[in-house]
Fold:
Amino acid sequence: MLNPQVTAAAELRSRPPALSSADPHEQLRAIRQAMIDAIEVETGPELPLPVVVDVDADGVPCRLYATRTDAPVFVYLHGGGWCYGTVETVDRLCRRIADRSGCAVLSVEYRLAPEHVFPAAQDDVDTVLAFVRKSGADLGVDPSRLAIGGDSAGGQLATVAARRQRDQATPLDHQILIYPAIDPMTASESYDEVGSYGLDRASMKLAWETYVPDPRLRFTPDVAPLAADLAGMPPTLIITAEYDALRDEGADYADALLAAGVPVVHTRYMGVNHGFARKLAVIDDARVAADQIASVLRASLCF
Structure:
């Protein structure tokens, strides 16, 4: 059964006004602004932390959250279909994770499509990871203990980056994927079963096509995580949602990682839909998920 908090949360975000122009760029700007305008009501007040500072990671804007020095680092990649979302839209989530995990959280403002298509966002993530390894000590964090994570499109970017780090013999310690976008073909049955709860196949197909305009590239490991050899990937937490069109592909990815010998915990949150995890002010399970993430990071990195 759908959690009534999900229905109530959906009413909080204003719908973009009807636009006289059919220009998709104008429509995208309206969607981006609606997401920004809803931050306070969806995610609640800022949790004060000792360190909240904007960082230039070799040209990639980031925001660092920390409660102490020499903390392990969790690099976080926001969702938004590779086309919208910012460090602001996940600010409260990152604050809570930093507060409860004992880890520093570095939230990444990667470049968005359609202004910057693949591989721009992925290159930005690689740049940030290299920056953390090189300059983390200057930031007061411990780059030798390093995890990555993200939600939706950010989950896709995170797990591709983790695989690329493995291939470079600089493996990450953990990855945390919140309803990750895994399948460019949008073939899962969950699109048909629960595609009317905020994210449907047409929207996700458009997101993939906007991010990766060249269809030939959508089947490569840097776009489709299941196209890669998954042996040696870092231990993984995958969070999926019952009423999410991405539910089944997240579960399939968990199964594929397990088959490759990767330690995996897959938690499905019942009664909630895509995007629930950042809505800390209005959905109880968002706070539960944030605290689960913090607990996993604390157990895996804080030693």
